[in-house]
Design brief:
The protein contains seven helices and 19 strands. With about 300 residues, the chain is of the alpha+beta class. The model has no long low-confidence stretch (mean pLDDT about 95).
């Protein structure tokens, strides 16, 4: 699908915009599934000021979607109308001060964990097990291997839909399991985390154990989107999927992982529709066998083909 080119209209509405605007930008390379249609416009802001100017000046009826590293994302085959915002290097800075870590929303979780470890800041090692960026970890209270963002967050900074800045305390984030209560139109730009004193070598060893655990239990070297469904209260999604007989189940080139059946895999030629249909079939089988409604953890955006 090809969308009308609206980049000139955006530049007229937001004079002096400095970031990159790309019409009909391929989104498949930005998603770990490596499938899906284009973004009508992909906007990579030059910095926070540029992002704020865009949000303030953009046409009010222009849809805006924010994506991170694409690790927990399924882009539908019809593409994404409006503007897709992707935070680049200007939002990936990481700094430490005492036992605190400040990281931009575009910083990969693994790099934040490593920076903390090298500074002797314990408590952030779990970020090594989250294959995404800080913005996504904030949006979904990302967690792995016994830790969650809510355990270490001091505050987060965000811009609202009008480009106004907000500083949000931990309490204001409204965290629950894989969820935060911040309005959907807020775009996170930075976070501050609090750790505790630790030995760098010990922390790095813990990170290595997490890396090993991931590589031996999850299909990390495949085209996958991470955990597909949230764990229901008191249950594990993968166990329900396994009990429903879905391990290895396949629709074309889309397959439920044999290694960890809460992961879906694109073996190369799967369309987003194949992957989504596979996920819905898994949900239906789990409902039929256990009575449990699984809820998608993977974020699905865009239009069907």
């Amino acid at each position: 699908m090809t969308f009308p080119d609206i980049t000139s209209e955006i530049r007229q509405a937001v004079p002096g915009i400095r970031g990159e605007l790309e019409a009909n930008a391929p989104m498949a390379p930005l998603s770990w599934f490596r499938t899906g249609g284009p973004a009508q416009v992909l906007f990579t802001p030059a910095d926070e000021e540029d992002l704020a100017a865009f949000l303030k000046g953009r046409p009010r009826d222009l849809p805006v979607t924010v994506v991170g590293l694409g690790s927990n994302l399924l882009v539908r085959d019809g593409g994404v109308p409006g503007v897709v915002i992707r935070l680049g290097k200007a939002f990936a800075r990481i700094g430490t001060d005492g036992l605190r870590v400040r990281a931009g929303a575009g910083a990969p979780d693994v790099k934040v964990a490593r920076a903390a470890a090298e500074a002797g800041i314990d408590g952030l090692s779990f970020l090594r097990g989250i294959p995404g960026a800080i913005g996504g970890a904030l949006r979904m209270n990302g967690g792995a291997y016994g830790g969650e963002v809510k355990d270490v967050l001091v505050e987060a900074r965000a811009l609202d839909g009008e480009g106004r800045p907000h500083t949000l305390s931990l309490a204001q984030m409204g965290f629950s399991y894989r969820h935060c209560g911040v309005p959907e139109d807020f775009i996170f730009v930075e976070a501050t985390f609090q750790g505790r004193a630790g030995d760098p070598e010990t922390i790095l060893a813990e990170m290595n154990r997490i890396t090993e655990a991931r590589s031996t239990t999850q299909p990390v070297n495949t085209r996958t989107g991470g955990s597909t469904f949230r764990n229901p209260d008191g249950r594990r999604a993968w166990e329900l999927i396994d009990a429903a007989g879905c391990r290895g189940y396949r629709i074309g080139d889309a397959q439920v992982s044999e290694m960890h059946c809460n992961f879906l895999i694109n073996h190369g030629a799967a369309k987003a529709a194949d992957i989504e249909r596979l996920g819905e079939e898994v949900r239906a089988r789990v409902k039929a066998t256990s009575g449990v409604d699984l809820h998608w953890e993977i974020r699905r955006i865009g239009l069907p083909d």
